[in-house]
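Box S1 | Example of a co-folding query
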Amino acid sequence: MTKIIKTEKVQAWYGTEKALNGISLDINKNKVTAIIGPSGCGKSTFIRCLNRMHEVIPGAKVTGKVLVNDVDIYSAQVDPVDIRRKIGMVFQKPNPFPTMSIFNNVASGLKLNGITDKKFVAESVEKSLKMAALWDEVKTRLHHSGMSLSGGQQQRLCIARALAVEPDILLMDEPASALDPISTLRIEELLQELKKEYTIVIVTHNMQQAARISDYTAFLLNGDLIEYDLTESMFTKPNDKRTEDYITGRFG
Amino acid sequence: MNNLQAQYNKHMIRRKATNYIMLTMMVLCAVIALIPLISILTHIGASGIKGLNLGFITNLPSPVGETGGGMGNGLVGTLILVTIASVIGIPLGVLTAIYLSEYQQIGIFPSVVRFVADSLLGIPSIVVGIFAYVVIVIPMKSFSAFAGGAALGIMLIPIIIRGTEGMLRMVPDSYREAGLALGMRKWRVIVSIVLPTAIRGIVTTIMLGIARISGETAPLLLTAFGNHYWSTRIDQPIAALPLQIFNYAISPFEEWHNQAWSGSLLLILLVLIISIVSRVATRQQKFK
Amino acid sequence: MLSASWVDRIFKVITLLAASAVVALLFAIIIKLYTQSSFSIDKFGFSFITSTDWNPVTGEYGALPFIFGTVVSSFIAILIAVPISVGVAIFLTEIAPRWLSTPIGFLVELLAAIPSVIYGLWGIFIFVPFVRNYIQMPLHDVLGWMPLFSGPPLGIGMLAAGLILAIMIIPIITAISKDIISSVPILQREGALALGATKWETIKYAVLPYAKTGILGGIILGLGRAIGETMAVTMVIGNRAEISSSIFAPAHSMAAVIANEFTEATEDVYLSAIIEIGLLLFLVTFVLNGLARFFIWSVARGPRGGIRQ
Ligand SMILES: Nc1ncnc2c1ncn2[C@@H]1O[C@H](COP(=O)(O)OP(=O)(O)OP(=O)(O)O)[C@@H](O)[C@H]1O
Ligand SMILES: [Mg+2]
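Box S1 (continued) | Returned holo structure for adenosine-5'-triphosphate
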């Protein structure tokens, strides 16, 4: 099994407040890895360390190593811009660019990266929207504003936007937290489809969801990695008492 | 690494170069914007300090060729003009702000009042000068300190309304409710709770407004007019610091140019000290 | 306790009266400007703004040279001030660390506190010679064959006025742009960054499109200020009522002619013509300010139909 991401003792701070206390965890290629844990335990912080988005926040700091395809993304020679375009990210709240049309939202990553071939871009937009299960709903109004969509559609638009640049890895921070059950279901189906080509790391609050969609699960608590295992094993026979308490709903 | 990712690399160098060039340009913009400020302050400091002495702020202007002239009458004139403006502008502005914040926050009339205040704020000062000329100078048949003070007062009103309203709105509603719950009447709540709580902010607003109007020149050309002599009468033309700076600056005499620089130093000290002190005061208040 | 409730009512009425007085003041300004210029409006009609003939001796009053001067000098000011102001705003919000952006922002604000007569004084003795030696002369040598840059480099003139106006409106446009840019949600920036955008690309594709309406509001506010500015302009523009194709030539402006000729205008029609220029200035700035506020306000509510984040 190829380990596409390896983290070694990743610690993260917001100013002087420490949010991660040294997380070491390897993520398998073409699998869905779920990160679970109670609110404030550092799930978002951890996945933002994987594409160097954590440092965007003023005063934020990371130490330790994150190897992506065996390259240390925090080494001095590496430009975060190069990392981020190989690792797509979908945020907790949908954030389409409000001044761009649906089409341009999806095409934005390609255009940014210098892809100008119109035919290629159009095909890529269609392909990404189909993958994100949004195509049928928007194909007749591609040139409307991205803000004209519902919250669930906006989130799928953001997924399409991330897919269009064809990243190797997709990071998703509670992509379904603001969605209704039907939209959530579509996104879950989509993930099963996507994992054939992508490696997916998904943060979720929802244990049933983690159990349904992921191959591996990591449980974080107060900035520490408590347990990391095959999802099946973790949910049937957890090794740690705290994991058991959490997945059986006894705390958090 | 997939095919598309490989394509991206072709553009990376250009994109990163553009990034550095553009970011450098932004830094450059900041530098360019500050150069005039530095130039103005250093030239006023250097050229103005020579002539700025006690005589300068106590003496009358002297004719060309004679030394020892000053802008004492201009300084006093400016203080009188600002006083008249304050008497007109502060009560009107503060009362209007109280109306907007305490009595009627929403509705058509308050919106109209705010719109009017914002519009007054944007009127060119020379136009305010015309208005004061038409309604005061023409009926009084004379340029006067009163007309000048009124013009400045009109400019002061919208500054005070908008600033004071903001300060009053920062007073938490719970303070007002505490007063009302004690059985106070509304005017009592306003006078003994709301105003005292917001007083620092209101004073700051007033000081900033005064700093702003005390350097105004254009409306005074049509109203206060200027005066070579001491005059404290409000029904007569009166000297003002900015007017004297203007007249000396456009004169052909080197000596008067020097006086204009000294006058500017005096004026800018007045204006900057008032605005810096009041700005620092508001900063501290926000921290509390 | 009867008296106490009266006090309450009186207090409210007093504040209402003050607010009404402020509204009445604006109406009074409009009415007075209109009635005082009606003589000129009736006499010259529309030709007032199309005629170039401004001649108190023959009693002909056409304001076109002044309108031309105001429009062109303000246009130069906007052309120069907008990129610099937006650049400074971006520098302050996106690039500079806090310890640097606070004092620099403060200094830029100070620019707005300097009285315009001081800009004029500095303009006459420092800035105009600089413009002549380091901007006009080189331009004249290289591009002197173009009508736009023809004529003797005097220093004083349209270009100097435009540039000094640019300096004066930079703090206004910067202040508004800075507020608007810092109100762009962080999530928008992160959306672009996560796609692999560089910092500049994030600003260009995520921040500026979101903020552009509000920045436009700031620009219009700056334009209104430039149009109404009197002292600095009259001190460096040359005060000559001519329309020249060259930006080096002396010119005049609407505000400047009021300042210069108002107290000399002894005849009724002369005074009325000058007040009509004031009325025009008032109307233009009134409309521009309304427009500016609308744009700034519409951004404060978020982009069209947008959810607020
Ligand atoms: N911008 C920030 N500034 C300061 N502290 C922060 C910031 N963001 C998060 N934190 C802190 O870091 C810790 C981890 O936060 P994080 O957002 O990673 O939690 P999370 O597991 O994603 O929670 P949730 O499920 O609520 O999204 C929390 O204690 C939080 O208070
Ligand atoms: Mg989170």
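The mean pLDDT of chain B is 91. Chain B has two domains: 2-48, 56-282.
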